[in-house]
Amino acid sequence: MSSSASAPIEPPSVDPMYPGAPPDLPPAEARSAAGPKNRRTLAIAAPAAGYLILFLVVPVVTLLAYSVLTAGFFTVSGPLTLDNYKQALESDLTWQLGRNSLIVGGLTAAISVLIAVPVAYWLRYHAGRWQLAVMFLVAVSMFASYLVRIYAWRTILGTNGVLNTALIDLGLIDHPSSLFIFNQAAIVIALVHISVPYVVLVMFAAFRPIEPRYLEAARDLGGGTVQRWRRVVLPLIAGPAISSFIFIFVLASADYVTPQFLGGPGDAMLGVNIAAEFTASGNWAMGAALSGIMLAAYALCFAVAAIGLRLAGLSKIRWTT
Amino acid sequence: MTPPDRLSRRPGPRRTSSRRGPDEDGGALGVAGISQHFGKTVALKRIDFEVAAGEFLGLLGPSGCGKSTLLRILAGFDRPTTGTVTLDGADVTSTPAEKRPVNMVFQRATLFPHLDVFENVAFGLRISRVSKPELSERVGEALEMVRLGHLARRKAYELSGGQMQRVALARALVNRPRVLLLDEPLSALDLKIRLEMEAELRRLHAETGATFVYVTHDQGEAMSMSDRVAVFADGEIAQLGTPNEVYAAPDSSYVARFVGDANVIPVEVRSVVGAAARVALAGEELEVPAGATVAAGPAQLVLRAESIDLTSPNGGLRGRVLDRAFRGVRCSYLLDVEGIERPLRAEVPSSPSGGEPEVGAEVGLGWAPSAARLIPAEANDE
């Protein structure tokens, strides 16, 4: 290419040996010149930007503003202060509830992903004619209200519930056990049940572009099941799997309904406390500060995951056709 | 490329095989009684053939004829309903793909999108735990072999179609397979790149010494590269021979039409005297080579389009030009000959001064006596 650089008229630098190669493109900054194209881009982005401002930026900014104001009873007022954060972080209760949130959120997210990935894999590669029917059932399971499903678990796991009745009828136990409900396990079971369908759908979409020929190529090159998963499947689904994990972690760890219905006295989570601050205690500033702390924790999780994926070169998979 | 290097193929039984020099690299492949049924569909009907070590075998046939099904069986992706596959005499029918010393190049390049060119090529070596210095040396060699050393750090989406297939070739060849399977690897490429790649594949075949089995529906590709060609028809091998044999001496009208798109004309054999037969064709009596075992009675005459010339006005057949297409070096004609149901196709060198017969013109058809070939009549000839 250097020999042709001095030629007066030069078509885009195409490698003479390989005319099929894409020509070297100018750097991105040079290409995104301002112009009417820019205005159109703005117009297309406007609805999304408007939505984000109205439903994300405004509420979050309001919440953060509350968190640095002085608390009254169901009010907030000046002056600005960081006392709410100080109080929240110094309270043993915050750390205890935070620990519960972390355990329940982490377990729920991990179990959901671990269940959903094989299900999605089966749906993508082995379900055959059952694919559509099973996908439909997965979607249908999301139609039932969240509250209904929590109540359903209460009737299953409760002292006079389906599980106890069944075990007594089978003669495995002689009196109802109270071990199944009012503990973290019950909370996690219900939240996993609610979460799995979302993750299955996301992971199915993640498997979609991985055509079977990619797995066959890996096999052909000597990869057994373990190597295929390690070197091809997992790297290619890492992004969606980690996103799903964070998504479910956020939803589950912030849940404030399930712990109240299925948890024991010591199983409350941060969300329960935040709800109480906003309602029973009337301390909006404290509720907002607790929310701010959770938001910061989630942002940290997200940043770590995003940086990790980027460093591994897996944040964006560019498929060839 | 030193001999000890040769020993470090994938682990497994191959490791124990005696050291081989660069020229003895190919494996001999045996296919015996292979059939494949998918439910009620029969994709392959008891196929038998052998591929010699280091041979380049083309599997030629239209889509749906079973050639790709056979390749998947050779690769180890699918198990045949009946029959055995042997490699250097050892039965590998139930050896899964990941354990066969056989590699495949897919129709579409199928490069792993999360890995760059180097890592794609290194994939098989990493799995077989080849040491680091050897790995980078072999990957480098393989990339040089397909002349892509300068693109080692590119990702698949930054490559052209031809470059992707080169990487796929390097990724397969770096493992030093006994047999390389190629499933229409050029069909997605532009004509120009395709011709370059054909030359490249011939060179790689010579350089590596591996046995190549090449599936294609393009007779030009099959003929130009293969040592032998197996023409597939509907799950069976219609004919297996060198490109020359298959082209010059087709056994059936199917092969004659599929390879080179010959004219196949029903004729009546009057008499056979030694190597010559007298046949009745469109009211004329002609003498043609008897070719395969032909007795008096109905038969078929195979006549290549390029064997016909239109410059012999007297004697022989006369026809009328139905259509003419100028193709540069030559001219394609469609000729209506009275007494022959189907129009005949003729490919005639175009004359620099022009003056070719126009559409509607009467022309005389001639051909060298040895250019025609008699084959037996077929009951179900379409």
Give an overview in words.
The complex is a heterodimer of chains A (321) and B (382). Chain A is 66% helix and 1% strand. Chain A has one domain (47-311): MetI-like (MetI-like fold, Orthogonal Bundle). Chain A contains 13 helices and two strands. In chain A, 29% of the residues are buried. Chain B has two domains: 3-248, P-loop containing nucleotide triphosphate hydrolases (Rossmann fold, 3-Layer(aba) Sandwich); 264-376, no CATH class. Chain B has helices at 3-7, 67-75, 117-127, 132-145, 161-173, 191-208, 219-225, 243-248, 253-258, and strands at 29-38, 41-51, 56-60, 82-87, 90-91, 102-105, 179-183, 211-216, 228-233, 236-241, 263-273, 276-281, 284-289, 297-303, 317-326, 330-337, 344-349, 362-365, 373-376. In chain B, strands 6-7-8-3-9-10 form a six-stranded mixed beta sheet, sandwiched between helices. A five-stranded antiparallel beta sheet of chain B has the order 13-12-11-14-19. Chain B is α+β, with helices and mostly antiparallel strands and 382 residues long. At the A-B interface, α9 and α10 of A face β6, α3 and α5 of B.
Could you name the key traits of this structure?
heterodimer; A: 321 residues; mainly alpha; MetI-like fold; two-stranded antiparallel ribbon; 13 helices; 2 strands; 66% helix; 1% strand; disordered N terminus; B: 382 residues; alpha+beta; Rossmann fold; 6-stranded mixed β-sheet; 5-stranded antiparallel β-sheet; 9 helices; 19 strands
What is this entry, summarized?
Chain A is mainly α. Helix content of chain A is 66%, strand content 1%.
Strand content of chain B: 25-35%
Poorly predicted regions of chain B: 1-23
Work out the strand percent of chain A: under 5%
Number of domains of chain B: 2
